[in-house]
Amino acid sequence: MHLRWLGVVIVACLGLLPALAGAQPPSDDQIKAYLQKHPEVILEVLSQHKVELYNLVMAGREVRQRLIWRENIRRGLANPLAPRVDPKRVVVGDAQAKVLVVEYTDFLCPSCRQAASNLERLMAKHPKRFKLLVKHLPGSDLARQVALYYEAIGRQSPAKAWRFYQEVFHNQDLIAERGLAEVQALVKRLKIDPARLTRDLADKALAKRLEDDQAESKAFKLAGTPAFVTGGVVMRGPAPLAAFEDVWAISQGEKLEPL
Fold this sequence. Notes:
Elements: H1 3-14, H2 28-37, H3 40-47, H4 50-78, E1 91-92, E2 99-105, H5 110-125, E3 130-136, H6 141-156, H7 158-170, H8 172-178, H9 180-189, H10 194-201, H11 204-219, E4 227-230, E5 233-236, H12 241-251
């Protein structure tokens, strides 16, 4: 809120100074002196603009949070975490992308659904910057089984595994209600080889992956889902696109978007 603008508003609203027609606007020093003597004027004016004041406070809060986040990124990049990357697992996106996003998710977690939506947009917007490795922290037996399906499908087709990931989150409520029957219907629509899928689902190596994911998240002190390690930086909750973009810009030494 520019001080000169505030002075004009005060004058216009309260009629405390002579009409401004043909006169010079009050100087900054005059405004400061007046408001120091009459601070109640500020409250009077702001009370007439509650919505604008609320929006201003919320915008300031977002800027402050973004500044804190950027400082956290710099600290994280100075001491990055290194999640294990198994070459046999699905990595979505361009293999040459510079920033790896490791997601720790639960296919039946509502917050993870929002995170998945953000990731879809991120991968579509920046296909050459980011690549994604999905890891699993299932909170129920059904979520564990869906995670195993994702890993098994990935053995047949990384592209279909990514499509499975998207469709599961898009249909999360139906899967929670109908269970594996809905998952199997999705598998059929994706034209997954059923015999190979059955064989892979029984492979204990896939169950071991989930155990390793949980152990790694514990070592990284990632309590709850969703969580991410992006370029070595910890991110908790359904992080927005701007958070990933800030990691990219800072890690690559690019100019940050002004706040």
